[in-house]
Amino acid sequence: MQTLFAGGNLFDGMQQSPAGLGVLVEGGKVRRVAPLPEFTGFAGPRVDTSGCTLMPGLIDCHVHLTMGGEADPATAQSKLSAPQIALKTLERAQITLKGGIVAVRDCGGKDYIEFSVRDAIRRGEFEGPQIRAAGRMICMTGGHGNRNGRVADGVDEVIKAVREQIHAGADLVKIMATGGVMTPGVDPEDAHYSREEIGAGLAEARRFRRRTASHAQGAEGILNAVLGGVSSIEHGIFLNEECLRAMLERGTFLVPTLAAVLNIIRNRDRGIPSWAVEKSERVFERHKQSFLTYYRAGGKIAMGTDAGTPFNLHGENALELQYMVDLGMSPLDALRAATSLAAELCDLPGQGAIREGAEADFLVVAGDPLADISRAARREHHRGVFRAGRPALGLPAMAGALGRVAAQAAF
Ligand SMILES: [Zn+2]
Question: What radius of gyration, in Å, describes the C-alpha atoms of the chain?
């Protein structure tokens, strides 16, 4: 069956398209993008996007679906059985899709539970976003992420840990290069692997054609990961001149996850562990500077939120667009970061663009997000979410507002 989307503006993942285009969908894919007169006489179903902008569904390059965004997610998770975590993981994936996010990169789960959710969605047993998942994050003894991560020390063990993730079904490999905010007793500025260890792990992942992500906050760890050939630096809080140069030279992505730190600071009095609040407040100014410096230097930035961390809610991922623009990114670049560039980083060639042959995964928003990013960032302006050309999860094809559709399941 064919469906024609027409009537409003079109952002194709790279730029605003000329007015008066129609997008014909067939078999879940974009079949044709052409001026409306070409579709004269089309008698099939239409989605009227008048007054709205049709754009690719958004992609979040950094989420944790096994975590629920509670004040203390690790403690909340520890009280749940594996089957309970699995159900919540599926529920969060669906809430994420309702928020206009058609694909996510899960940057560290628990006991591969998120793989079963990914695979069930892939097989069509449940509706949800496309999921790329890292499995267990790889970290050193006592390092950031050691509660759910795969602890590995020394070159040989790091290589073995990478092989384990690939054997378990990881789409990408996540290696922790520094300390972080959400683990007690570690300092975000400390490098957590030697250059040799992290370089060996990244090379092993590459050997099996896996992209890589490094949680990297301090400059020494960032540099270790970048020189090891990592695909993306997550957070990137203390970028210095040397990091900047190395990242620009190699085309390394930065996934800033501004929402992670911002939501901890904004909700500091709501039960978040005090060490996490203290560290967030300590790093936030530098975080903002690093993001802007990389942006102004022309570095590649892909949108990611770290959803699942305190008060960083699944389903509200698109707010990251607003945070990036508030700091000085143009709306056009923010939208690219969440569509075409995110698809490049996540290795999802059919996503992040509206062009012939691409997946018909769309977000329709009221008004023009290139003039006002809140149109894409805030759910109250969303009018339709489509997966494979069909309204996602029983949402109406075009609704007055989708912002009230789903409450966060974790609360
Ligand atoms: Zn994370």
Answer: 20
